[in-house]
Amino acid sequence: MTRESLLNIAVLAGFLAVAIIASLSGQPYLVTLATKAVILGLAGVGLNLALGYGGLVSFGHAAFFGIGGYAAGILASAAQNYEPLMTWPMELAGTTSMPIIWATAVIAAGLIALPIGALSLRTGGVHFIMITLAFAQMIYYFAISWPAYGGEDGLSIYVRNSLGALDTMDPLTFFLIAFALLLLVLALTFMATRARFGLALAMARQNPLRLTSMGVRPFRVRLAAFVLSAMAVALAGALYADLNRFVSPSMLSWQISGELIVLVILGGVGRPLGPVIGAAIFVLLEAWLGHLTDYWQLPLGLVLLLVVLFARGGVIGLLTGRNANA
Amino acid sequence: MPDPILKITGLEKSFGALKATSGVTLDLFPGEIHALIGPNGAGKSTLIKQIVGEIPQDAGTIAFEGQAIDHLDAADRARIGLARTFQVSQIAPELSALKNVMLAVEARQGRVFRFFRPVSRDLALTDAAMAFLYDAGLGERATMRAADLSHGERRQLEFAMALAMKPRVFLMDEPMAGLSPDGSKRMTAFLSDLRRTAPILLVEHDMEAVFALADRISVLVYGRVIATGTVAEIRANPDVRTAYLGDEAA
Lengths: 326, 250
Description:
Number of domains of chain A: 1
Distance between the termini of chain A: 15 Å
CATH class of chain A: Mainly Alpha
Order of helices and strands of chain B: EEEHEEHEHHHEHEHEEHH
CATH topology of chain A: ABC transporter involved in vitamin B12 uptake, BtuC
Number of helices of chain A: 13
Shape of chain A: globular
Helix content of chain B: 25-40%
CATH topology of the largest domain in chain B: Rossmann fold
Structural class of chain B: alpha/beta
Strand content of chain A: under 5%
Low-confidence stretches of chain A: none
Strand order of the largest sheet of chain A: 1-2
Low-confidence stretches of chain B: none
CATH architecture of the largest domain in chain B: 3-Layer(aba) Sandwich
Largest interface: A-B, 28 and 43 residues
Number of domains of chain B: 2
Radius of gyration of chain B: 19 Å
Largest sheet of chain B: 6 strands, mixed
Order of helices and strands of chain A: HHHEEHHEHHHHEHHHH
Largest sheet of chain A: 2 strands, antiparallel
Structural class of chain A: mainly alpha
Strand content of chain B: 15-25%
CATH architecture of chain A: Orthogonal Bundle
Strand order of the largest sheet of chain B: 6-7-8-3-9-10
CATH superfamily of the largest domain in chain B: P-loop containing nucleotide triphosphate hydrolases
Oligomer: heterodimer
Number of strands of chain A: 4
């Protein structure tokens, strides 16, 4: 087993241990903090598929995070207010069932990511960054100006959505749900990056000219990565709305896109668990330093600067040496 | 005489006022090496890029096995059997030599969008790729990162990838470039055998290699083919001597 796999197992076990110990010793706040890190980590794992493995620096993934959040918020608020979701062309009721909400979030984000990706991937480099940002901002302003779903004020979810007979309002239970989904998505991305698709995606990033000359269009491979990445981020968004029992346009803001990139870079670009470690560091810094000063992002910026300057493989790279997935 | 496998007719390409390709007509027959020579800036690489579909021509037509392929993009042309090697080796530096070739095998099979089964356990893929690496003389280096290979070994890796495509035609842009005299000799022997696998359109500056390998030579000067013929005909052609070969061929 490589050092990186050992570290990965230690990190996941650490998350589980912190949540369980905090829950047993009566510190629900810590459990919630761990849950937030898990959810942001999940979003980072999704972004990593595009950014790390595909080399696609999307500055618009907040769009998919927010779409996931609104999928949860809209379905849940319709159900909780006993209003139909829509009446035309057919009457559709809301729901508080988590699996249906997750599926809706993932599918909606995938369908929206398809045209955004198809248009954005016609560009590259800085233009790609800017056009993904532009699409996300369009969706952000749309959410602000459309009054049906709370506009600027957002939507409240009075009670967390349900999963079978589980008490989702219990912090530890909700943590475990989020943690299980993180493991699932980690396993899927781990498989995909080691399968035939992962090989093609690696070539699309490292040498698109060669990929073309082998008979494979880099565009299609990148688009698949972009859409899958958006779907994973939307799942995280749905969980995030449930965690806060609130969704607002701020989930769609460009700051979120930036924070997700920060998580990935902090932990280690193109490392399976990089974003999870990045999220843990991010949430811890926010909680501890944010307690002391409003300017907690200044030290975060310094940490990020150090990582970019001295540890190109992120924190994981620092702890385990150079990239071993040849 | 058999039909040409590749037939280029009246090809034109300009970049602004610069005429890079001017009425080029050229063909490639099964089993032959057709060398394309010419001074720097004669438009050799531009011609290769048009044939593989990387840049579109302004006029003229490119036919492969009797069918015009002008409407096909580079990926399509690769899939029907045009394999290209580059002047500067094009590889995925972070992947192992083996994985570079495995991707070529998977691309030929047309099965790229598979998300679950790890490639390392796909024996059909690894065994096939391994065989092509040995064919290109790089079997011993299979697990090395491509970035850690020497210049000559990267060239061999390019050939392993091209072989893995099981192409109908090879298009090679200066395969001898940067090789040691010893490396050039081995490459010459390798290419000489390779023409039996598929014919080669060979752009090359190394005259010794061209004269040793070519069944036919075309000379490109300022985007125009000024002569096509056997090695002896080209050596004897006075236009070619003044335009390009100079004293070197005397």
